[in-house]
Amino acid sequence: MRNKCIIMQKINSWETERDRNYMIKVGIIGATGYAGGELVRILQLHKNAEIKWYGSRSNKGQPYAGIYQNFFKIVAADCMDENMETLAAEVDVIFTATPQGFCSHALNETILQQAKIIDLSADFRLKDVNIYEKWYELTHPCPQYLEEAVYGLCELNREQIKGARLLANPGCYPTCSILSLYPLAKEGLIDMNTVIIDAKSGTSGAGRSAKTDNLFCEVNENIKAYKVAGHRHTPEIEEQLSIASGEPVVLNFTPHLVPMNRGILITAYASLKREVSYKEVKAVYDSYYEKEAFVRVLEKDVFPQTRWVEGSNFVDVNFKIDPRTKRIIVMGAMDNLVKGAAGQAVQNMNLMFGLPETEGLQMLPVFP
Amino acid sequence: MRNKCIIMQKINSWETERDRNYMIKVGIIGATGYAGGELVRILQLHKNAEIKWYGSRSNKGQPYAGIYQNFFKIVAADCMDENMETLAAEVDVIFTATPQGFCSHALNETILQQAKIIDLSADFRLKDVNIYEKWYELTHPCPQYLEEAVYGLCELNREQIKGARLLANPGCYPTCSILSLYPLAKEGLIDMNTVIIDAKSGTSGAGRSAKTDNLFCEVNENIKAYKVAGHRHTPEIEEQLSIASGEPVVLNFTPHLVPMNRGILITAYASLKREVSYKEVKAVYDSYYEKEAFVRVLEKDVFPQTRWVEGSNFVDVNFKIDPRTKRIIVMGAMDNLVKGAAGQAVQNMNLMFGLPETEGLQMLPVFP
Amino acid sequence: MRNKCIIMQKINSWETERDRNYMIKVGIIGATGYAGGELVRILQLHKNAEIKWYGSRSNKGQPYAGIYQNFFKIVAADCMDENMETLAAEVDVIFTATPQGFCSHALNETILQQAKIIDLSADFRLKDVNIYEKWYELTHPCPQYLEEAVYGLCELNREQIKGARLLANPGCYPTCSILSLYPLAKEGLIDMNTVIIDAKSGTSGAGRSAKTDNLFCEVNENIKAYKVAGHRHTPEIEEQLSIASGEPVVLNFTPHLVPMNRGILITAYASLKREVSYKEVKAVYDSYYEKEAFVRVLEKDVFPQTRWVEGSNFVDVNFKIDPRTKRIIVMGAMDNLVKGAAGQAVQNMNLMFGLPETEGLQMLPVFP
Amino acid sequence: MRNKCIIMQKINSWETERDRNYMIKVGIIGATGYAGGELVRILQLHKNAEIKWYGSRSNKGQPYAGIYQNFFKIVAADCMDENMETLAAEVDVIFTATPQGFCSHALNETILQQAKIIDLSADFRLKDVNIYEKWYELTHPCPQYLEEAVYGLCELNREQIKGARLLANPGCYPTCSILSLYPLAKEGLIDMNTVIIDAKSGTSGAGRSAKTDNLFCEVNENIKAYKVAGHRHTPEIEEQLSIASGEPVVLNFTPHLVPMNRGILITAYASLKREVSYKEVKAVYDSYYEKEAFVRVLEKDVFPQTRWVEGSNFVDVNFKIDPRTKRIIVMGAMDNLVKGAAGQAVQNMNLMFGLPETEGLQMLPVFP
Questions:
Q1: Is C207 exposed, middle or buried (CB count within 10 Å of its CB: 0-12, 13-18, 19+)?
Q2: How many CB atoms lie within 10 A of CB B54?
Q3: Are residues B136 and B42 in the same domain?
Q4: Share of chain A above pLDDT 70, in %
Q5: Cβ pairs bridging A and C (under 8 Å)
C-alpha cells in the first residue's frame, strides 16, 4: 500500500506509468531536517521509489505533514523512530540525513546485508580515519567500512557507485568545489599549492535546529565568514583533489553565510602552471562535462549565479583567466539542498539501483 | 522537430512516455516576463505540450536562455516577435503574458479560428466594458468578445472552460481572494457589504520592467500599501463575488508589497450573517474543495503561509471565526506566478484540450 | 566613573557638552534582547543619561559587547543579574525589557521609592486586571499598581507621564495602531464597531530567543498571519480607543510576520459616520499632530512605508477615503524597536525627568 | 537662514549648541543617489555644517523630501541643478556624488579657489592618468589636478588631507581592502605577489538607477561574482598597497553581489613571508589602529560581520593565520555607504576644515 493520500492521487497523473514491478522501498532517517525534507520532495515524484519510513526521533508519532506543511494532503505518514536495524528489514535503501556520528554508530553488517545505505553525513567520506577524527573531533566507531564506502560524486565515481552498498554522499561545499576544479586538477593545469576556495552559502546549509545565530534577524542584512581555516569540508575537498591531481593538496577554504535560503557559490583561485588560452581551457571543461546531465559549463564571461540553479540538480561552472596575475578564477553555483544533498543522494540511488541517473531529478531551476 | 537541446534530452527520461499523437503546439507572447518564464518552466515538463514560439519583441533574435539563464542547455530557441496572426497559423494555443491592451488590440476572428487564446492580462476578465474602461483607463478595442470570453478560474467555471476559444486567465489577487471567499459568498454566510480584503504580495507580481520602485534596496526591509482604494483587481473580485452571492458586491481591497520573490497572502474580513460553528463552516469549505486537486483547506488553527505553497499550483485556505466581533477572518496563500498566473493558465489549457487537469502541474511546494 | 572605554571617548566629541550636574543613572533589565540592545544604542548618545547596569541573567558575567558586537569598544561593561532591589538602590530609573510577568513579580514599594520604573512588558498596560489575566493567562501579582501606572503613549498622556513613578511602555502594535486611529476615534468620525486593524511586523518583534519558527529559512520568502483573533495587543488597543472615543470598542486585530528586520505597518479600516472630505480629515489629523516631533502626517496619497522611518522614532500616518464603500483606510508606519519600544521608552524617560522630550532621539531614518 | 523646517527644529535640541560663528556651507551634487542621501542623513546632524544645495539635475525643482521620504518634514529644500561654478560661489565645500567623469569635466581653477571639493567618484583617485584611462575607458579632461588631489583615506593620509583643496574620496571596496591589509603590507609581513581579495557587497553599492539586474527579484535569493578580473577598484587598491609596501603590487580582486542593502565584507588571502604568531600580528594591527576612532581590531577568532557596523563609520578588521598553508586570511567589514562613501567624505571634510575628525559621525551601528 502506498503511503499517499487523496490529493496526491488526484494530481499524479503519471501514477499509472510507474513500473510497479520495480518500486524501491525507501527509508529516511532525519526526515525533518532541511535535507530530509528535500529528499521527500524529490522522491514523491520519483517513478520508481516510495518512501516507507519518515524517521525523526524528536517528532516520533507526529504527522510528517504537520512539520512540513508543504506536504499537507501529500504525505499522510507519521514520523517514525530512527532504529536502523528495524528499518533495514523493511526497505531497500536507507538515507541517513543525520548529524555526524549517527550513521557510523548505528551501522553493522546485518544492516548492510539487508539495505543499501546512502549517508548524507560525513561519516564515510574520508578514507583516512585519522583525518576524520582530527577534523570532526569524534572517534570513528567503524573504520573498517571506510575502505568499502564509495564517495558518491557521481560525475567522478559513476562506476564504483553502481556497485556500492555503503555510499558516502558528498558535502555541499565539496560537491561544488570539486566539480568546479576537477578538470584543472586532473589535467595538471594549475599549481595545486596555490588553490584558494572562497565559498558562499545560503542559510539552509546551517540546518533547522533552533540556534540564535540562525535567527532571521541575525542572518538577514549580514554577511560573515565562519570557521575560517578550520571548516570540516576542507579535508574532503583536499582528498578528492589530491586523487584527481595525483599529488597531496593543502588548500584554503573559507565559507561565508549569505542571507538567502538556498544556493552555494564558490569562487576559487589558482595559479596557472603555464600560459593557456580561453579556448584551450574551455575545451578541457567541455571534454569532462559535455555528456553530463547536471553540469553546465557556461558561455564565455557568463558567470554562475545561484538563482539560475535554484531548486534543480544543476551545477553551473565557469572560469576566467587573469593574464595580469597568471591566475585562473573558477566559479561554481549549485543548490546546496539538491545537488549539494538530496538531489545527489537520489542520483546516487538511481545509479545504485540501475535506474536512469536522471530519474526524479528533472526539476528545472525556479526563477525568480 | 522538438525545440530542445542536448542536455534536456539527457534529463528527460520521461520523454519516451509522451503521447506523440497528441502534442499541443504552444506559442507564448511576453515570454521574457516573470509569468512568461514560469510558463516555460511548467510547459517544459508537460507531457503533451511543446513550446514553438518564445515571443518577446524587445529581445527578438536573442537566445531565450541568454535572458533566463536557468534554461541554459534546456531551451535552444531564440526570441521571436509578437505577431499574433503569424503565430496563430503555427500553433494550437497562444498564451499572452503581456501588458493590458495588447491582446485585445491584436485579437481578431482569423486568429480565434486558428488557435485558442489564453490571455494572462486583464483584457477579457470583466464582462462590463464600462467597468474595464473606467478602471483600466483604456478604450476596449473589441468588446464584442467579452461575452464569449470565459473567466478561467477552473474551480468555478470548469465546464465552460472546456469549450472556450478565448480564455481570460484570472488576476493573481482575484484568484486567491475569490477562492478563499467563494464558499462563504455562495452559501450566503457573510454580509457581502462588509467584505474587506487585505492582500500581501511578493515582488514578482510587479513584473520585470526596470523601475526604481522595484529595485532591491527599495523593496528590501520595507512594507507598504499601494493603490489604496484604487487597485484594478478590485472590480474583478467584485464581479465574481457578485455572481457567487447573487447580489452586487462593493468591497475594499488593499494590496501590499512584501520583500519576497513569490507568494500572495490574502486576509479577508466579513461579518457573519448568523452564528455559525467551526464545524459548520469547515464542512462548507470541504464540500466545495475536497475534490479539488489544487485547493487545500487547512486544519483547524493552521493558517496559510506562502512558504508552504511556493513553486506549486496549490492554494491553501483557512478561516477563523471571531465570536467577539461576529466576524470571520478568511486567509488564502498561493504562489502568484503559478496558481496566480502560469500554473492556472496551464490548468486552463489542460481543460481546453481535454487533458487531465493536473498534467504538468505536479510540482510540489519548494521549502525552504 | 563613566562606563565607556577608549574608542567611545574618542568619538564622542559632544562629551564635554553634557551637563554633568544632571546625569540620569540608568539600569536595564533584559539588556540582551532586541529592545534592550536598542535602549543601549539610544542611551549611549543621550546627553543626560548613562547606563550603569546591563542586566541579563542568562549572560551574567559576560562582556555585553561580546553578545552585541556592534558595541565592541563602546560598551566595556559585563552583564549583571536582574535583581531589581539591588539595582533600584544604584540607579534613578530602571527599564525592564523583559517577558510578561517579570516586572510585576519583582516590583514593590521599596523599589518604587528609589527608582522610577519604565516597564516595556505588558504587565501594567491594562487597567482591568481581569482582562490582563484572561489574555495573558497569568495571575497578576500586584494589581494594586495598575491604577497608578501611567500608559506611556507620550502624544496622548504627556502630562500624566511627567509625574509617573511606574510607566507602562505601550506595545509596538498598539503604539502604531492607536496613534493612527486616535484623531478619528476622538473626533467621532468613525463607527467604532467597524474597526479592523491588519498589521504587519518585521521579525525583530518576535524577540531574540532561539525558536525554529524564527529561523532565517522559515521567515525568509514567507508571509503569514499569526494569533488570528487572539493576539494580546488587542485589548490594549481596545482600551485606549475606548478611552478616546468614549464608548466600548471591540475590534479585529490581525498581526502578520514579514521577512524584514524592523518595521510595523498597520492598515486599518473603519466605516465613516458621515460623508467627509479629504481636507476635513487632513485638518483633523494636523490639529492633533502638527506640534508633535515624532508623528508625521504625510501628504495626500503618499502612503506610509516602513523604510522611511527605520531607525528613527517617527510614526508616519496617512489615510484614504473610499467613497465607494464609505470607509476610511488609515495607515501607520513605525520602527517597532524605536517608537514601538526603546525610543518611546526614552521619550517617556525624558518626560519623567523633565528633559526635552526629543533628547537622544534625533536619529534620522536610515535608508536604504 | 537654515534650510530646515519645523519638525527638525523641534527635535534638534542640540541646535543651540552649534557654534554659529563656524558653520560650513555645503553643496551636494548627486544628492539623490544613495551616497548623496547618506551625506544628507549625516550632515543634518553635523554641528558645524549646513547643506545649502541639494543638486540633482534629473529632479531639479522637485522637493528633495519627495524623493527621499525619510527626510519629510526634515529637509524643506527643492533639488537644484548641478552647475559647479554657480555652486562654488555659494558654499565652502562641494561633495560630488556623481558618476565617473562628472567632476573632472566640471572642475577648474575658479571653482577650486572658491570651494573645497570632495569628489566621491574615481576621477582623482589614481595618480597615473594612463591607468585611469585604461580601466575607466574615459579620457581624463584635467590630469593636471591628479598630482594635487589627495587620496582621502584618513587613517593613512591624515596630514595631507588637512591641507587639501581637492579630495579624492576612496572607493568602497578599496577603503575596506586597504585598511584591512595595510599593516601587513607596510610591515612587509606578506608576499605582495600572492594577495587575493574576495569581496562581497550589499546592493546599495550598485546605485539607484533603474536597471533590471538590480531589481528585487533578480538580487534576492542570489549571489554572483561580477566584473571578475576586471573591476575598476583593482588599480586603486593596487596603487595604495604599492605605496604601502614599497613594491609594485598586482593582485586579484573579485567583487560579489549579496542580497542585502548595506555592507561590504572583504576576505583577503596572502602568503606569509615568515612564520609569525597571532600575538605578533595582533600587536602590529594594534599599533596601527589602536588610536583610530573608526577602525576596530576585533578579538581573537571573532570575525568581522557587516551587521555589527551597519549605519556607522566603523571598519571592523581581523585576521587568521593558517599554519597548514602558511597563509594569513584577513577580513574587513564596513558599511559601504558610510565609511565606504558618505561617512568617510564627512570625516575628510572635518579634517579639511579643522574640526574634530569624528564630528557628525558618532552614529552607533544599528542592529538588527
A1: middle
A2: 30
A3: yes
A4: 94
A5: 58
- Write out the residue range of the structural domain in which residue A55 sits: 6-148
> Which residues sit opposite B95 in a β-bridge?
B28, B118
Same domain? D114 vs D61? yes
What ipTM score was computed for the predicted complex, to two decimals? 0.95
Q: Contact A327/A272 with Cβ under 8 angstroms?
A: yes
Domain presence at residue D341: no
Chain A partners (3+ C-beta pairs within 8 A) = B, C, D
Q: Is the same domain home to B128 and B220?
A: no
Query: Residue A257, exposed/middle/buried by CB under 10 A (0-12, 13-18, 19+)?
Result: buried
8 A C-beta contact, residue C336 and residue C310:
no
Q: Are residues A94 and A11 both part of a single domain?
A: yes
Cell of C78: 559585563
D136: number of Cβ within 10 Å: 17
SS (H, E, C) B168-194: ECCCHHHHHHHHHHHHHHHCCCECHHH
Question: A209 to chain C nearest CA, in Å?
Answer: 7
Distance CA C190, CA C292 (A): 23
CATH number at residue A56: 3.40.50.720
Q: Are A250 and A193 in contact (CB under 8 A)?
A: yes
Strands (E), D258-294: 264-271
Burial class of residue A109 (count of CB atoms within 10 Å of its CB; 0-12, 13-18, 19+): exposed
Rounded to the nearest angstrom, the minimum Cα separation between C256 and chain B is 10
Buried b (16+ CB within 10 A) or exposed e, B223-238: bbbeebbebbbbbbbb
C-alpha–C-alpha distance, residues B258 and B219, integer Å: 7
Do C52 and C138 reside in the same domain of the chain?
yes
- Please tell me the total count of domains within chain C: 2
pLDDT score of B353 more than 60: yes
- Whether B37 and B108 map to the same domain: the answer is yes
Does the beta carbon of D304 lie under 8 angstroms from any beta carbon of chain A? yes
Q: Does B352 touch chain A (CB under 8 A)?
A: no
Is residue D172 among the annotated active site residues? yes
Residue C308: C-alpha distances to residues A232, C312, C319, D9, D68 (Å): 43, 9, 17, 19, 8
C158 in a structural domain: no
Whether A250 and A296 share a structural domain? yes
**Residue D57, C-alpha cell as written in the block:** 539635475
Domain contains C364: no
- Nearest-by-Cβ selection for B358 from A11, A309, A368: A11
Partner-chain contact D309 C70, CB within 8 Å: yes
Task: Please tell me whether residues A194 and A250 are part of one structural domain.
Answer: yes
- Rounded to the nearest angstrom, the gap between the alpha carbon of residue C4 and the centroid of all alpha carbons in its chain is 26
In Å, the largest CA–CA distance within chain A is 64
Q: Which residue is it, cell 507620550? A: C154
In a domain, D208, yes or no: yes
Say if residues D152 and D167 touch (Cβ distance below 8 Å).
yes
Q: What is the mean pLDDT of residues B187-209?
A: 97
Report yes or no: C338 and C34 within 8 Å, Cβ to Cβ.
Answer: no
Q: Look up the CATH number of the domain holding residue D300.
A: 3.30.360.10
Query: For residue C138, how many other CB atoms are within 10 A of its CB?
Result: 15
* Nearest-angstrom CA–CA distance, B192 and B246: 10
Helices (H), D55-98: 64-67, 84-88
Residues C208-226: pLDDT tens digits? 999 999 999 999 999 999 9
What is the C-alpha separation between B79 and A297, in angstroms, rounded?
A: 22
Report pTM. 0.96
Closest Cα to residue C363, out of D112, B134, D312? D312
pLDDT at A196 over 80: yes
The amino acid at residue A354 is: G
| pLDDT score at B22 | 79
Q: Which of D79, D142, D172, D176 is catalytic?
A: D172
